[in-house]
C-alpha cells in the first residue's frame, strides 16, 4: 500500500478532528481539555470518520488545485483508513505521554497509564528523532522501489 503526500492530508485531517473537542473546551471554558476524544475508543470512531471525510476533502482540495485537469486523483479507501487511524492512535499515544488528566482507556480503565511525566523538550526531542527515522525509512523504501523497477526493466530488455 503506497503512502503518498495525499495520505498525509488524511493523517493531518485526523489530527485536527481529534483536537476539535479540546478546542471547544478551551474556547468555552467548559469540560476537560483532553476529554472523550482522547481515548482509544474515540480514536477508532473518529479515525473512521476522518477517513471518510478526509478522503473526500483531500480529493476535492486536490481537484481545486489542479484546476480540473484530468485524471483526478483518487485516494484509496485502505490508504484513507490506515492514514486516519495512524493519525488518531498516534495522537492518543503522544498526548497521553504529555497530559496527566487524559484517560486513554476510558470507559474501561481510569487514569492515564501512558503518562511519563516527560518535559515538553523531551517529548519534542522524541518526536524529532521519530520524524528523522521516519524520513530515513521513507527514502530507503523509495530507493528499494526504484532499484527493483530498474532491475525488472533490465530483465525485460534481456528477454526482448
Ligand atoms: Zn490532542
Q: How are the SSEs placed, and which strands pair?
A:
Layout lengths: L4 H14 L1 H9 L11 H26 L11 H22 L21 H40 L1
Helix pairs in contact: 1-3, 1-4, 3-4
Bound molecules: zinc ion (ZN).
The site of zinc ion (ZN) has 6 residues, from helix 4.
Tell me the number of structural domains: 2
Helix fraction? 55-70%
Question: What is the 3D shape?
Answer: globular
Determine the strand fraction and express it as a percent band. Answer: under 5%
Largest sheet: none
- What is the element string, with H for helices and E for strands? HHHHH
Provide the gyration radius in Å: 20 Å
- Model regions low in confidence, pLDDT < 50 over at least 5 residues: none
**Which class best fits the helix and strand makeup?**
mainly alpha
Number of beta-strand segments: 0
Bound molecules: zinc ion
Average pLDDT over all residues = 89
Structure overview:
- Helix 1 packs across helix 3 (40-65).
- The longest helix has 40 residues, at 120-159.
- It is built from five helices and no strands.
- The protein is mainly α and 160 residues long.
- The protein has two domains: 5-117, no CATH class; 119-160.
- Bound molecules: zinc ion.
- Zinc ion binds at residues 18-19, 22, 38, 91, 95.
- Zinc ion is lined by residues 18-19, 22, 38, 91, 95.
Amino acid at each position: 500500500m503506497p503512502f503518498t503526500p495525499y495520505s498525509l492530508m488524511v493523517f493531518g485531517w485526523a489530527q485536527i478532528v481529534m483536537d476539535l473537542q479540546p478546542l471547544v473546551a478551551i474556547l468555552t471554558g467548559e469540560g476537560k481539555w483532553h476529554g472523550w476524544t482522547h481515548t482509544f475508543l474515540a480514536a477508532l470512531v473518529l479515525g473512521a470518520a476522518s477517513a471518510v471525510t478526509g478522503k473526500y476533502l483531500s480529493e476535492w482540495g486536490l481537484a481545486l488545485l489542479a484546476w480540473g485537469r484530468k485524471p483526478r486523483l483518487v485516494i484509496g479507501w485502505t490508504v484513507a483508513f490506515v492514514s486516519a487511524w495512524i493519525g488518531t492512535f498516534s495522537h492518543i499515544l503522544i498526548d497521553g505521554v504529555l497530559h496527566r488528566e487524559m484517560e486513554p482507556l476510558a470507559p474501561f480503565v481510569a487514569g492515564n497509564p501512558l503518562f511519563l511525566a516527560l518535559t515538553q523538550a523531551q517529548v519534542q526531542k522524541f518526536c524529532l528523532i521519530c520524524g528523522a527515522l521516519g524520513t530515513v525509512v521513507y527514502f530507503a523504501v523509495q530507493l528499494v522501489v526504484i532499484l527493483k523497477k530498474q532491475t525488472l526493466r533490465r530483465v525485460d530488455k534481456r528477454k526482448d
